[in-house]
Write the structure tokens for this entry.
Amino acid sequence: MKSKTSYFNRALFLNLLKRYWPIFAGYCLIWIIVLPIALANRLQYEAASMANHFDLRVLAAIGGDQILRVGIYGGTLMSGVFAIFIAMAAFSYLYNARSVSMMCSLPIKRESVFLSVFTSGLVSMLVINIAVFLISLAVVAASGVFAAGLIYLLQWLAMVSMLNLFFFGFAALVASLTGNTLVLPIIYVILNFTVYVVEMLIKTVMSMFIYGISMTGSSTLAAFSPPVALLTSSNFERILEDPTDYNSAFIGAAYNGWGTLAVYALVGLTFAALALLLIKHRRMETAGDVVAVRPLKPIFKYCLSVGCALVLGLLIFSTVFSNSPLFGIKSMLFMLLFMILGAFIGYFAAEMLMQKTLRVFSARNWLKMGIAALIISAFMLGGEFDVYGIESKVPQFDKVQSVEISVSGENVTFEQAENIEAALSLHRDIISHKDVNESCIGNYEMAVNNVTINYTYKNGKILTRGYNIYKDVSDDIYTLNDLMNSKEAVEYRKNLSVPVSVDTIADAYISYFDRELETYNNVELSPAQAYELYTQCIIPDIDDGTLGKVWLITDDSYYDGVYDCTINFSIEKRIDDNEYKSAYFYTTLTLNAERTKEWISKNYGLSLSTMGESAKYMYYESDSKAYAEKYGYPVVAQSATVID
């Protein structure tokens, strides 16, 4: 009778549980604290706070929102951390010559050993998940929201189980690639974050010597760093009784990232299958090596070289030149020098770790290190001289859907064709003035505006550029000022995300320079006054083009045509008992905003100074006479403009 090949060994399965039960006990205990205990406290608190208007739908929604968020955030952290602990225990036999020899001498196939220890770790986590699910189900039942709680908890169970599968599969793959139990968690952590970190490092390096590259904006490759992607997830949705009314009751919560979780789970299964194949064909004498798979050794070496080049290069450069206004080719050359030094440290450190000796400075290694240095040099020089076309890249007009410009705290999104074309033209002008703008770096006496331009293409992609514009070297800031005061820009600033009404105005005041008190003063407005001022005066003046503008440059038209006076509104609308949606509106009063001026005169009769008058008065009253003379301010006090 033929004997059958077994792919599971019960003794190995149980042995892992017996030897490393504290790991699983810790996983269980933390989940009990994080979910059922925390959930019971939250539901009890919310029920008590709704004593006079108790609503089971709202209570279930609040609890469901917490369950779903704990599922993603807590599941990511718990799975990510405990997966590596369990993998270190399950695959510990691979890292010791005696234990691996013992395993290989047993009449058990390698596939059987792998599947036994892998399923032992994974099944244990899944069983604990089910236990926590049942305890939590009892909690929601005791709170009277069993049906809704069951649905949310089933989603939590699915979330956490898929995350377990991904992270433990990934940990098993890393275990199959390494030969040292201390190296395993280090490589695991690095690989979990490497894409995101490397992207940020490369962006940082590029922003230092490629004109226009900006560090603003989110990562485009975060999905390849699962902990980052999951912990920054915004796939949660609050379901309102009336979706058009923010004041309606919060009756449900939903998670919309199931597709991503399913992909991660499938990837986890793939990682586990790859780990099985690698361990099946692994040379077991590599126990104790940093990298156990021969073809991966050069990859490890060069990855460590590049990583050290980026990290150490940035660290040394930012330390040495923290207060030095380097720019252009000089900045790039010093950065290149420090990056090559970092690559040298990383390359030979990797060699020492893999060869387990300090004797690694051979001619062959120097040659390979030289190749790495040449590649880094080509990358840096290509960026500095715009070989890649990054600096000179301006989108084509017909491919752009909108342009968002941020400058001096003002943000505007342009969608009209003429303004998009104007933004593209301005962008080309800024690029053409690269040399003069960079030559002003470190000159703190020159007025500078930081400008960020975000293009949204029709295909959904985004291009971001950032520049420092100096008004004394080009007319770019004047062109930008005109664009930021175009009709579309003013309309954009006028339209708020929360409708303005007497009920939504939370705070309103007029801030102005008070000549009598020699300081700035505020006048508080009631919601009714603010609503009247906003609807009957401010909006009509904005529509007439006499109000709602911004000033990026302080020239004569600014000092002579603008009052040192701002009107400020804080607007809030309640979404539910504990959450509000807010917006903020402010505008600077101009001399030709007749309706708004008349309202202030009728209600308060304030004595207002123009920006120029208040500036001259302040400089006259201060002790800095040299400063006043330097900037041409007279030494006589100016009379204030009185609105009465």
In short: Confidence is low (pLDDT under 50) at residues 622-644.
